[in-house]
User: Which sequence fits this backbone?
């Protein structure tokens, strides 16, 4: 431990020690050469020196303000010249001053050199970014830097990245022992690009040492396993997130269809209403409360519920209540309602999609291994769906209204006989179903396009969830939504999205053959007309 | 005693009906062709090419509407998938039309343009024989017919009905639409089939061809009306209406509803497909958007506007809605959806028996003697609401 601290201190001394002295002009003289190779070498050297002067020179080079004049390397900003080595301003600009041309290879080298310097920054996040950048292109010039940085690194996350980076570099080392330890260290990586690096090493002509080959094979196996796990988690996650959206779309439909036996074809448009309500709230926040824009979503949740519920009550009072007991006609009438709602949205907001932005706290995601990232907006939606589900469950199981709704769902006339006000229950249930659709629309606005026709695609999917789950069954809707979401996403992996969708639809058609009342049928005996 | 078939056929319709049919045939087969070909364009009675094509198109729609009415009005099955059968018929005949282009396509190769575009070297297996007119006719009838039969068999066997059946047909159509949107499916993807040149070697844009197609559409409509008339006045039609009104009771008496429903369902699909096959050469294009959910539901509204459970109603409905559509989409495109939406709502709320029902209500002096079949029974007053609700939940155990 003590020796470690000593060595770290020594390293720091070396770094700071060189910072006080000016640069050796002999190092910079390489820039005067016409040979790009020599210039590249200078950039590499500057990167290894890594002090303030070196950084200044590199930045000047990057901004095309490094010049050669009077046999010296100068930093020239068009008016006055500074000696690059000493940092002293020249009294007169030399006559023969000429700016250095920087080509792409040099720019790449400058980037790498600057990243190399950032490795020794005092800020761990800067070090982490620098290490991550250098990791992907380790070569002979950056390897010593990385090793130096690794020796002094204290932050665990940076240390891990550096270890992988150094191991990558050491994989091509001349010493078998170094290669062996590199291969063993790389086994902890979850990066697909490491696989590409390791795979050629399985060949005996590339890798003469049998022990290293075995270690490489082990490393490949372990990386592949880790990637497979990460991929599976990613698929499960996207499946669950699709399932949550289906659930939000289907919950309201399950209530209205369960209670009234009416398929509300305008249900998708209630999603659209909720999404547009979110859009309006976002606009209001941007205009009147610009400081609290990130909070608009919280305000949009109750508003989208209320607006959609209001539209639902209007629909129920003016049209649907006159069509009870005529399910096919109400299907057509609600389709008409959906057309009217679509055209209304088009007239009010224009036919184009409108922009609803994620609040800043919902951007980004949780990075898993490899390329798998779980975006925050989807994580939030899964949580939101669970929240809505709990609310609905409490409403259905613990309140008087919920009891009435269940009673009417099971037997309308008996419920009426014992004094349940069925007409009022219908209206309230419809309002709640519509409001939940509005909540779904609010959630959807965060991940999908918001446009007049956005709801059209969801009605069939939502109804499929209700059918598979069983009418009026919350648990059924949850299982069906999650199951369909997961099946769709897993199929998508190897058949493509369109075929997956077709397969799921065919599966549902076959499923209904076997279980006409869905996964969770209502208990009891029924006879139709 | 068994009535001879001819007598039975002739008496299936009152004299007024035959008269109306004869006038229709005269106008479609003689009047319109003469007005189109012989009268100068300045004449007020001249019929333009646009009008002939529009009318031909609406005649095809009318056939679809009657086919829809046969299952919805007479068997109580609301299909939201008739757009699929219509489009399949269109695609079946469209394949033949694509082959007739021959080497006149943009690439000058004996392959449809979209296949050249996809870099295919030869026709896929399901295009074999598509250059034959007769095989095209077989495809037009057999493919939608087989699909309807298989789908219907499974659906009716497990007694899926009501809104369940409607939504499942919609899902089927939706799945098919997604399938046809893919380029790899081999039907031109997004763009479908277009740029047709010839039928049986004759130029498709010539006035004679236009009139022939128009005349054939009129003939098909008359055939469908007569067939429908014959079916609904037969014993078969009565069993069908009984199934519509009380399926369980029909079963308890000893009938097997499956075969009745399956027959009328498949027949309806095939009629739709025939209409689609005539529709495609007239409008000159077929693409997957014909299978969109909106199109299939619109068919139902034609029937509802005209009056379901009557045969002439759907024809009237198809004409009213489609003429209104032509008018609105030209004059007030932004109001068309409002109009259509309110039409859906208004008709279901205020005109449950459609225009024909309204006519009968207004001019009914001698009720019941002329009704073709008992109008659809809404709901016997004695049956409590509950039963309808359980029926609405669709499937029985």
Assistant:
């Amino acid at each position: 431990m003590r020796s470690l601290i000593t060595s770290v201190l020594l390293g720091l001394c070396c770094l700071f020690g060189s910072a006080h002295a000016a640069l050796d002009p002999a190092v910079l003289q390489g820039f005067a050469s016409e040979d790009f190779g020599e210039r590249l070498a200078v950039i590499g050297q500057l990167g290894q020196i890594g002090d303030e002067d070196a950084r200044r020179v590199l930045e000047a080079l990057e901004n095309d303000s490094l010049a050669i004049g009077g046999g010296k390397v100068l930093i020239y900003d068009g008016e006055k010249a500074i000696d690059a080595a000493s940092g002293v301003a020249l009294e007169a600009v030399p006559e023969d001053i000429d700016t250095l041309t920087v080509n792409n290879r040099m720019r790449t080298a400058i980037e790498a050199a600057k990243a190399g310097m950032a490795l020794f920054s005092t800020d761990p996040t800067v070090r982490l970014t620098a290490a991550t950048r250098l990791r992907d292109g380790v070569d002979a010039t950056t390897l010593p830097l990385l090793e130096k940085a690794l020796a002094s690194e204290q932050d665990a996350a940076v240390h891990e990245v550096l270890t992988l980076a150094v191991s990558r570099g050491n994989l091509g080392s001349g010493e078998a022992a170094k290669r062996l330890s590199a291969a063993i260290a790389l086994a902890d990586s979850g990066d697909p690009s490491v696989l590409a690096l390791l795979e050629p090493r399985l060949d005996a002509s590339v890798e003469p040492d049998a022990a290293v080959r075995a270690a490489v094979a082990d490393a490949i196996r372990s990386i592949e396993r880790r990637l497979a796990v990460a991929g599976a988690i990613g698929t499960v996650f996207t499946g669950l997130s699709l399932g949550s959206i289906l659930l939000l779309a289907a919950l309201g439909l399950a209530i209205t269809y369960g209670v009234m036996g009416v398929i509300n074809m305008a249900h998708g448009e209630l999603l659209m209403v909720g999404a547009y309500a979110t859009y309006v709230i976002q606009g209001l926040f941007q205009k009147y409360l610009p400081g609290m824009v990130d909070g608009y979503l919280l305000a949009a949740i109750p508003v989208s519920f209320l607006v959609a519920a209001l539209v639902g009550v209007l629909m129920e009072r003016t049209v649907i209540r006159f069509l009870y007991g005529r399910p096919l006609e109400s299907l057509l009438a609600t389709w008409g309602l959906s057309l009217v709602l679509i055209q209304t949205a088009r007239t009010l907001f224009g036919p184009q999609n409108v922009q609803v932005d994620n609040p800043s706290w919902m951007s980004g995601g949780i990075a898993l291994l490899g390329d798998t990232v779980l975006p925050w907006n989807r994580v939030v939606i899964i949580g939101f769906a669970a929240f809505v589900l709990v609310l609905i469950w409490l409403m259905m199981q613990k309140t008087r209204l919920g009891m009435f709704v269940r009673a009417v769902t099971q037997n309308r006339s008996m419920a009426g006989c014992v004094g349940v006000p069925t007409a009022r229950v219908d209206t309230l249930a419809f309002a709640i179903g519509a409001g939940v659709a509005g909540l779904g629309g609010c959630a959807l606005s965060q991940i999908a396009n918001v446009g007049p026709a956005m709801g059209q695609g969801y009605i069939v999917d939502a109804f499929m969830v209700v059918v598979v789950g069983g009418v009026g069954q919350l648990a059924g809707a949850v299982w069906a939504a999650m199951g369909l979401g997961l099946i769709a996403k897993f199929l998508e992996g190897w058949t493509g999205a369109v075929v997956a969708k077709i397969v799921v639809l065919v599966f549902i058609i076959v499923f209904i053959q076997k279980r006409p009342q869905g996964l969770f049928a209502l208990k009891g005996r029924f006879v139709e007309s | 005693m068994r009535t001879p078939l001819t007598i039975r056929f002739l008496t299936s319709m009152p004299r007024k009906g035959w008269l109306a049919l004869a006038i229709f045939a005269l106008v479609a087969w003689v009047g319109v062709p003469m007005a189109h070909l012989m009268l100068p364009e300045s004449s007020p009675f001249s019929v333009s090419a646009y009008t002939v094509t529009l009318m031909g198109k609406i005649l095809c729609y009318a056939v679809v509407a009657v086919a829809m009415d046969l299952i919805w009005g007479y068997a109580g099955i609301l299909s939201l998938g008739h757009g699929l059968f219509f489009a399949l018929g269109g695609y079946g005949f469209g394949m033949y039309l694509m082959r007739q282009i021959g080497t006149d396509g943009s690439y000058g190769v004996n392959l449809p343009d979209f296949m050249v575009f996809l870099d295919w070297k030869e026709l896929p297996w399901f295009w074999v024989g598509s250059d034959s007119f007769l095989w095209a006719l077989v495809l037009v009838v057999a493919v939608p017919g087989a699909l309807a039969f298989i789908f219907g068999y499974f659906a009716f066997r497990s007694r899926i009905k009501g809104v369940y059946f409607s939504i499942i047909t919609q899902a089927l159509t939706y799945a098919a639409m997604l399938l046809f949107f893919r380029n790899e499916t081999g039907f031109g993807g997004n763009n479908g089939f277009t740029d047709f040149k010839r039928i049986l070697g004759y130029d498709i844009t010539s006035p004679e061809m236009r009139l022939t197609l128009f005349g054939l559409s009129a003939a098909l409509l008359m055939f469908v009306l007569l067939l429908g008339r014959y079916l609904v006045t037969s014993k078969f039609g009565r069993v069908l209406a009984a199934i519509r009104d009380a399926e369980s009771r029909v079963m308890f008496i000893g009938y097997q509803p499956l075969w009745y429903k399956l027959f009328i369902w498949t027949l309806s699909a095939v009629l739709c497909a025939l209409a689609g096959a005539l529709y495609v050469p007239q409008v000159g294009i077929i693409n997957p958007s014909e299978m969109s959910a909106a199109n299939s539901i619109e068919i139902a509204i034609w029937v509802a506007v005209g009056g379901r459970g009557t045969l002439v109603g759907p024809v009237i409905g198809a004409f009213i809605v489609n003429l209104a559509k032509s008018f609105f989409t030209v004059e007030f495109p932004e109001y068309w959806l409002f109009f259509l939406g309110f039409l859906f709502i208004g008709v279901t709320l205020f005109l449950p028996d459609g225009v024909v029902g309204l006519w009968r209500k207004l001019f009914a002096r001698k009720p019941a003697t002329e009704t073709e079949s008992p109008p659809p029974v809404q709901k016997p007053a004695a049956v409590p609401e509950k039963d309808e609700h359980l029926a609405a939940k669709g499937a029985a155990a």
